[in-house]
Design goal:
The protein is mainly beta. It contains 2 helices and 8 strands. Bound molecules: zinc ion.
C-alpha cells in the first residue's frame, strides 16, 4: 500500500485531512495492528485526533501515542450525497463526530446503521476495519 493510496483513503472521510502529519506511517502501522491511535502531548496533556506531531496548545513536540478505546457520544453527523471523483460508488454515506472524555474523533458511521437510527448523544465506538480492497479504515458502530 503506497502512502498516496492511504492519503486518498483518508480524504474520503471528508472532514479529516491527514495531510502534513509527519507520523502518519506510524498511524497506519497501528491501524494494521487493529488499533486506532491519536497523539498526546507529554508536556500539557492535550489529546489530538487525528494525530499531530506538534502540540498546538503548548507548542511542544514531545508527543506520545494513545489508543482510542471505549465509547464516545455522537456529537453530530451528516449524510453526504456527493463525494470526490472515484468515491461516488459509496454514496450516500454518513460521517460523524464522537466525543470522548479528552478528545473527539471524526469518521464514518458504519453503513449498516441507517440515519434514522442515529441520535445526537447516542453511545458509539470506533472500530478498525479492513475493506475488501485491503485498505484500512475505521468506522463507528453502536456501542
Ligand atoms: Zn501541549
Amino acid at each position: 500500500m503506497s502512502k498516496k493510496e492511504i492519503d486518498t483513503r483518508f480524504n474520503k472521510f471528508g472532514t479529516v485531512s491527514f495531510t502534513g502529519i509527519s507520523r502518519v506511517n506510524d498511524f497506519i502501522s497501528h491501524l494494521e495492528g487493529g488499533k486506532l491511535m491519536g497523539t498526546k502531548c507529554k508536556k500539557c496533556g492535550a489529546h489530538f485526533f487525528p494525530p499531530r506531531a506538534d502540540c498546538c496548545k503548548s507548542l511542544d513536540s514531545d508527543m506520545e501515542w494513545f489508543e482510542v478505546k471505549g465509547s464516545g457520544k455522537l456529537l453530530s453527523y451528516s449524510t453526504l450525497t456527493f463525494a470526490p471523483t472515484g468515491f461516488t460508488q459509496d454514496l450516500p454515506y454518513t460521517i460523524g463526530v464522537l466525543e470522548y472524555d479528552l478528545y473527539k474523533v471524526f469518521g464514518r458511521i458504519d453503513s449498516s446503521i441507517s440515519e434514522k437510527e442515529l441520535k445526537v448523544g447516542m453511545v458509539m465506538r470506533a472500530e478498525v476495519t479492513k475493506l475488501p480492497n485491503e485498505q484500512l479504515s475505521y468506522t463507528f458502530h453502536k456501542a
